[in-house]
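As the next step, I wrote out a protein sequence along with its fold in token form, included below for the reader:
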Amino acid sequence: MEADKDEGLYVTPDAGKITVRAYAEDWLARRIVGESTYSNYKGFIDNHLVPRLGRKTIAGVTKRDIEHFKAAIAQELAASTVYDRMKVVKHIFWSAKEEKRIREDPTKDVKNAPGNRGVDEDEIPTLGEVRLLHQHMSPQYKLTVWLQAGAGLRVSEALAFHVGCLRVDVIRVRWQINAKANRADCKTRLIPLKHREEGEYRDVPAAGFLCAEIDAHQEAWKSIPLTFQNAAGKTRQVEVFFAPRERGKGIMLTANTYWYHFKKACRLAGLVDADGKPKYHPHSLRHFFASTALAAGIPIHEVSRWLGHRSIKTTVDIYGHLVPESWDRCRDIIQTAFEPAA
């Protein structure tokens, strides 16, 4: 014990008696992250980490426990999601070790390789399926299908669409909906875009049909003024397209509450799998936009900018395999290189 103290390795036995649940919740409370990131972390901790490891003490978790945990979530989550969530688990236990609550990190030697992030072609709806979704979507939210499939907006960005976003033939995306916007006590209903600071925006080219659909929606569903506060507490007002129009339906629709309408449209359109679950997710419409643009030969760096990805690497990882011209060029170049000289 004295030797461990001299080397800075001593861990007070009581320090590791805190449960994984309590420590993970405290760890999350100390993170300085964006609203959507916080929501993702909390959902993972509440729905996966706590039910499986929450009752164990932080010092009582072994490498074997972590391996079983990873295997269990791999049965429920995509490989890329498992990779991202295991990074959270590793960070939690790394922090516990740094704070001298545990002597050894049980996640240290558990391999966590990134999965294939490339979107599967089966996850991308056809144009006919996009039209079916639009046909069966609740009338008030039909435009969201076109904003996602025709401009590549994230669902949270589409739900924050407001008067002023359309500028002739360009859509200027500046806000996204807060995950808590449906709560009466939420003041910052609109927040900056993902990976962006307040005041930053991105422009996306708007096709003629999309401009016409935006105008038609505004004719049928008059925009509603929304007053909110930005992060600095300054009061802002915009006229939003998708505010609830019935009492008792909340202040604003969020990505989570929109999922109900999307699932309903999938079922009505017959876009379900063998178990009756929706074949697609709202993000699938964003995949449609990206894949359609890339298949037509638009440079991937332009598509990356329109999608609002943090870096072009993200776009390449997800959609790079959908650029057929590059594969054909590679085949031709290598074939020419190895052909015998005439």
In short: The radius of gyration is 24 Å. The longest helix spans residues 79-98. The chain has a mean pLDDT of 87.
